[in-house]
Amino acid sequence: MNLFRLAGDMTHLLSIVVLLLKIRTTKSCAGISLKTQELYALVFVTRYLDLFSRYVSFYNSVMKLVFLGTSFAIVWYMRYHKVVKQTYNKDEDTFKHYFLVLPSFVLALLIPHAFNTVEILWTFSIYLEAVAILPQLVLLQRSRNIDNLTGNYVFLLGGYRVLYLFNWVYRLFMEENHKMRWIRDFVEILNTAWMSGLVQTALYADFFYYYIKSWKNREKLKLTA
Question: Signal peptide location in the record (predicted)?
Answer without folding.
Answer: 1-28
